[in-house]
Each structure stands twice: as C-alpha cells, then as structure tokens.
From TrEMBL, chain A:
It is found in: Cell membrane. Belongs to the binding-protein-dependent transport system permease family. This is Peptide/nickel transport system permease protein. PANTHER family: OLIGOPEPTIDE TRANSPORT SYSTEM PERMEASE PROTEIN APPC, PEPTIDE ABC TRANSPORTER PERMEASE PROTEIN.
UniProtKB/TrEMBL annotation, chain B:
Belongs to the ABC transporter superfamily. It comes from Actinacidiphila glaucinigra. This is Oligopeptide/dipeptide transporter, C-terminal region. CDD domains: ABC_NikE_OppD_transporters. GO terms for molecular function: ATP binding; ATP hydrolysis activity. It comes from the Bacteria. Keywords: ATP-binding, Nucleotide-binding, Transport.
From TrEMBL, chain C:
Residues 1-24 are annotated as: Disordered. Keywords: ATP-binding, Cell inner membrane, Cell membrane, Membrane, Nucleotide-binding, Translocase, Transport. Residues 26-274 form the ABC transporter domain. Residues 7-19 have a biased composition (Low complexity). The keyword Cell inner membrane applies. GO terms for molecular function: ATP binding; ATP hydrolysis activity. Belongs to the ABC transporter superfamily. It comes from the Bacteria. This is ABC-type dipeptide/oligopeptide/nickel transport system, ATPase component. It is a peripheral membrane protein. InterPro entries: AAA+_ATPase (IPR003593), ABC_Ni/Peptide_Import (IPR050388), ABC_transporter-like_ATP-bd (IPR003439), ABC_transporter-like_CS (IPR017871), P-loop_NTPase (IPR027417).
Amino acid sequence: MVRRVLALTSGRIAAAVLTVIALLALFGPWLAPLDPLATGDNTLAAASGTHWLGTDYLGRDVLSRLLDGSRVSVLGSLEVALTALVAGALPGILSVHWGRVFEWTTLRLADTLVALPFLLFAVAVVALLGNGLTQAMLVTGVLVSPLFYRVARAATLAVARSQYVEAAVVSGASTGWIVRRHVWGKILPPIAVALAQTIGVGFVIVSSLTFLGIGVQPPAPTWGGLLASDLGYLSHRPWAPVAPALLITATVWASNLLADAIRDVSGEAGRVLLDDRGARDGRPDRTDPAPAPAPAGGAR
Amino acid sequence: MTGGPARTADDAGPAGPVLEVSGLDVHYGPRHRRRPALRGVCLSVAPGETVGLIGETGSGKSTLARTVLGLVRASAGSVVVGGEDVTRHGPRQWRALRRRGVVQYVFQDPLRSLDPDLTVEDSLTEPLLLQGVPREEAAERARAFLPRVRLHEELLARLPGELSGGQRQRVAVARALVTGPRLVILDEPVSALDAATRVQILEILKELRASGTALVFISHDLGSVAGVSDRVAVLHQGELVETGTTHDVVNHPRHPYTRLLIGSAPTLYSAPADRAEREALRALLRT
Amino acid sequence: MTTVSEGLLPRRAPGAAPDAPAPPVLSLRDVRIGDRAGDREIVRGVSFELAPGRAVGIVGESGSGKTLTCRAALGILPAHFEVTGGSIEIDGTDIATLNPARWRALRGTTISAVFQDPASYLNPSIRVGAQIAEAVRAKKGLRRREAHRRAVELLRTVRLRDPELVHGSYPHELSGGMLQRVLIAAAIAAGPRILVADEATTALDVTVQAEILDMLAELRERTGLALVVVSHDPAVVARLCDEVLVLREGEVVEQGPTHAVLHDPRHEYTRLLIAEHEQYGLDRFRTTGEDT
C-alpha cells in the first residue's frame, strides 16, 4: 500500500510535505532562534534581520513562536484525529459484526455525542479531568468520533453484506479474518479522507479552545493561536496571518492529498464506496435504466 | 488447527448421506410476527449424488441452503451434515466444521461473489488458509487445481475485474472445490452466463460429480437443472411438495405446482395447448 | 380456438417475408449501427418485416447487438451510437425523416417497449396506478376519472388479479412479475401496434415468465398487436414467435420461420443454443421419456 501511494506524484508530494511538517514538530522548539515567550519593546515590527517574520503585539519573535508552537499544534491535531479514529472507526466496524446489543448501544452513543454541545462538554470534562492539552484533545477526538463511526459503519455494512464475505464465512472465516482480509482495504479510503479532514479541523479546534483557556495555556504558542491573535492586529500588520495560515493550509492540503492518493490506489471497491456516498445525495433518475445503488447506508 | 475436528469427519464415513435434513422448520421475523419460511422439510443427499432443488422466489430454497450452511437457525427439526448433527451448533462449532471444508457454496453472481481487490490466487487460497494449510502449500494446491476448471495459470495474478464472466464463475467454482468438499451447494450457478460458458461450467460440474462430490443445484427453473440432476426436490411456499428421480418427476409429476413448473419451463418444442393447461393449473393453485 | 402461431407452424417458407396481406407495421432493411466516434460497426445488417398480429424473435447473447437493434427501432439509441446504414420503417414512415415531435406522437401510440428491469422504469414514490394514468392522459387526453378507469382496465388486461389493489400500490410493494405486468400495461396504454419486449421476462421465475408470455400471446391474438421478442433463450422466443433471427456479434447468423430454425439449424452457434436445451434442459427428458 505504501509503495503504491508513493508511486503516485500526488502521493510523493503529500509524503514530502508531511515529512517536513513532522520534522518541524520534532525539532521546531530547538530550532527557534529566540525565546518564544520573551517580550520586547519592538511590538508589531516588520520582518528584519533579527526578527525574520517580525514581532507580535507583545514584541515576541513570530518565527520562534511558530517553530516552538509546531509540536503542540501538530501533536494536538494528530491526537484529535487518532482519538476520533479509535473511538469512532473501531466501534463502527465492529457494530456490523458484534451483534445487536453492541450495534444498538454504539449507534445511540454516536447519536448522543452528535447532540452534545461541544463547548459545554469540553468545559465539563476539563473540570473533571483537569486542564491540559491531552484532556482537551481527548474530548475533541471523542466528539468528532461519530463522523468516523458513521463512515466506517457505512463502508463495513456495504462490504459485510457482500457475497464474498459470506463465501469467506462459509469457509470458516472469523470476524477478525474478515475484517483484515475483506473489510479493511475497502473502508481505509473513506476513513483516510475523514482523517485528513479531521487533522485540519483539529488545528482550528486547538486554537478555539485556547481562547477559552482550555488545553494550551495562553503564553504558550500554537499555530491556531498565532493566527487568531494576528487577525486582531490586521490593520497594523496585514500580512502577519499569512505565515501561520500557510502552515495550517499546507498541512491540511497535504493530508487531503494523501487521502486522495490512498483512495486512488485502493482498488475499485474503495472508489465505488466513495462515489456512492456522493451519488446518493442526488435522487435517482426516473428513466435511468441503471440498477439502483445497493443499500449501503449506515443510518437506520 | 487441532487434530480433533478431522476425526469427526472420518467417523461419518463415505457410506452415510452427506446431508440429512428432517422435519426442518425455519421461521423469519420478530417474535410476535413470525412467518414460516420452511415447514417440515425432509431431504437427504447421498455421496456423489446431484440433487436439483427447485422453487420460485420466496419458496424457501435459499433459506434451506442457508440453514444447511449455518447462516440461518432452524426452529425445529434436524440437520446432519457429513454425519455431524449441526442443529444445535454454536458459532465456534460451526467455524470448526466449516474450516474442514465439508460443505461449500457457489453463488449465482460471479461478479459479486469474488472480492474485487483480491487476486485470483488470493481468492482460491482463502479456504485453504482458513483450514490451516501453510501459504506455499495453499498456493501450490490452488495452482494445481486450475486445470480442472479449465483456467490458465497466468490468471492467478489477475483481479476479478480483469476476467470475463465465465472465467469468474470458474474461479468461484474452483474456490468452492479446492478444499475437496463432500457437498457443494450451487445457487443458479450458470444463469448469469452466456450459452457457451454455461455448457462449459455444466461440463465441469459433471466431471466433478464423477469424482464423488455431492451437488445441490438451486434453481427456479426445473428445465435448467433437469439435465444434470439425478433427483429433484420441488419447494412450494416453504414445503417440499415433490421429490423423486428427475425422470419420474418430469414425466409423472404429481403435485399441481410441479406440473405448472414443467409446463412453464421454456422448452424448444412447446405445444400451444399447454397454455390452457397452465391456466387451469394456476387457477387450481390459487385456491 | 387455435392460436395464430399454431396455424403458421407447418409453413416452411425459406425466406423471411411473411406473405400476409396486411402491410408490415415495422420493417428493418439491412440496418447497420455503428459507434459515432469510430469505425466500429456493432450491428451489421439486420432485416425483417413484421405484419400486424405477428411476432418476430431476436436471439443472442448480451453484446450481440439485439438491444441496440430494438433501440434503433424505437429511436432511443444511446448518444454515442447511430444508424449508419439501411432503413427502418414504422407503419410506412421512414424513421430517419421523423422530427422529435413526431417521434413523441409515434411512441406509445404506434410502437412501445418493455425492458428487463421493470423497477427502474417506475418512480418509487408514486403509486403505480397514477403512473399508468399519466401515460394514458398524455397520449389520449383523457380526464382524470376516465384515466383512472382506463388504468384499472389496463391492469386487468395484463391479468393482474386485483387491479384496484395494484392501482393503489407503490412499486416496492409489488413483485418483479407484477411490476413487469404494470409496465406492459403502461406500454399498451395508448393502443400501440408494435410492442418490443427486450429480455422482458429474463429476471423472473419460470412460472411467472410463462404467465407473462401467455398473456402476451393472448394480447397478440385478441388485439392484433405485433411483437418483437428479444431474449438470450431460444425457448422463450420459440414459445411466441413465427420468425426468428439469431444474432451473434452484430451479425444475423440464422433467420427463418421458428419451426425451421429449431429443427434444422444451419449455423454452429444456433446448434449450440439448441444442443444446450436438448442436453441439459427438459427437452432431453421429454424425448427420452417418451422412448422408454
């Protein structure tokens, strides 16, 4: 799979961009030329020899803040995406295979999570578990997980009702075998797309929680936080939001590119599933002699 | 795999029937609105025998097949597969039984019964790997089996999408047979194919029968399985209304539904008078 | 009462043209259909004439060009295909001269069709009766109440057991056989002279298939409806048709009276089709059964 993704130009570009960002996240804090928290008199300065990207409203070096904030930002949004994946996709797959009780419970749970007001829930959990980035990201991940639950469940349902899965069952395959051999490859593409989306959403959520003082505490920099504070001084430094915005966009774009590449190489079944999701929005044409798409909806 | 299950298979011996269904009732639907799908079905298949199971949509023929495969639970009666009473089997026992490869199934639509992302080799080795056969040996056995369904070795690396309909169905047949099952259930195995391939598959199945495997052909059309079946069993509204040798059933049908089936089967030389007879039979069945 | 087909069976005219006095309602002369983009010819010369009350059958695999031939006669060829040669006349009018408005007037009232998958031709959210009434009103300009009455009458004509009940049902409440009858009812709503049945019974159980074929035969005798029956199974065609064309890869490999083609097939492919029935079908038991 990895080799096939890298055979595509888009796959290589995505991998390259994501590698650079991963390196930033790993080594960013050490690469920062100045103390990211040191304030100075030279506020809202333009780019110069000492401050390559200028300074912010407290005179802090923007480049250093970006580099220093990269680890928290990237790790934060990854944490959101992975939590959502584990809390959503896994029950989504198993809800099809593990009998009615599990199916019913997880479906109701997913509905409940969608209905919960996000901020209220975040505040409540932080009050219970204490404030911290990990707690905040866990909360966010759990709240985003219904997306993964639905996507995984819909994709698995379509595969589980297929004859080749039944043929495998008749040959004595266990649930684990079926998921590994027949289900996983087909639900990976839609899940990869959802994951890429979630990574993008993760940046925004990390920053919006910063506003509330949840997760990252204010002096510590994050990409989303930088973007938010720069937007407040748009009249003084109109070009300032470009740098953090560019980083966020590049990450999200590369994730989406990677998701597309994964979809393209994962065989016709994966493509059909994705096309199917798009096509179902349109109503079937009355005179169209083509057979109606197989019922694959996850919602009941 | 442990040595345990293999012993039971030998105990059954080749002499007893590979399938014995007696007094089988199957119900569908929620508890307060249960509808019978099968009522008191008795059917037995001897080793190497070919039985045609005939019935229309909703007659229960697929339910019967699925019950034998353990995909549907019986509400009464018993099912004995290869000498083993499977009526009360739980999921674990079923899996053990299936992994021995005693019963296999061939679906009607070869396009959907093969995983589109798996190569022919992967599809063919799957049942063997599930039996616990090592990967190399499984690949070797799959390769060795191909000539029996008249497929070329170079197809092993292909995906189902790169094969013709006839080739796909031969792969599906090969997958069902590669474990050397004693009973194969085939659900309309040729109806989705063109004439030349249909004849070819039927030839392959005929050879198979000669090698001692029992076959159950499921079809809505008595005509399409008459030529390959030793015996036929006719299902009508969940009940077995007629069983007998194909010759007897075709020439001396007793139940009006069987008579209608025979009268309806597309034949090349039908007499116009059949029309009135069919009409009379339909009226009779309606009451 | 003997059927028309029975009366025709002993005739062994080698040619295709029926010498019935009535002029043909549909005639195809050396029709060729090709790919619009390239040089690929998919149908290479199909000719037949269809007189009122007669039935012609086209036998062939999927991809043999039988469906394209029908679609050409109905003027509904897919966008990238076109008739590249020959002529098609419906009721004496060359279809090449028809404009869209005249085509609309012709379809339904003169030529009509039913296809394999009835469910996809009905709107799932409208009761079937209303859909038939719509066809009736569009073609005959009847008022709502008359259209309702006529729709029920049509459902009775196609031998649905409870026409009023079917009239008020949604497509998903009906079986495949019932849906196909509904479609036939809609197809004959405006009293066409030709009905094209393209694999119309293929997906149905044999008993239902026989019922529909019987109904079509009866319709043909009673109203003089001319039929074009398309199937992959020669037996289906044999039950209904006076004349058979066997199509293979776009070419007519055999053509003649049904009886002659079945008893004395000349082409290898026709022999294969017949051999399959005699070897594996019921025919084998019937013949050996009589012997013993």
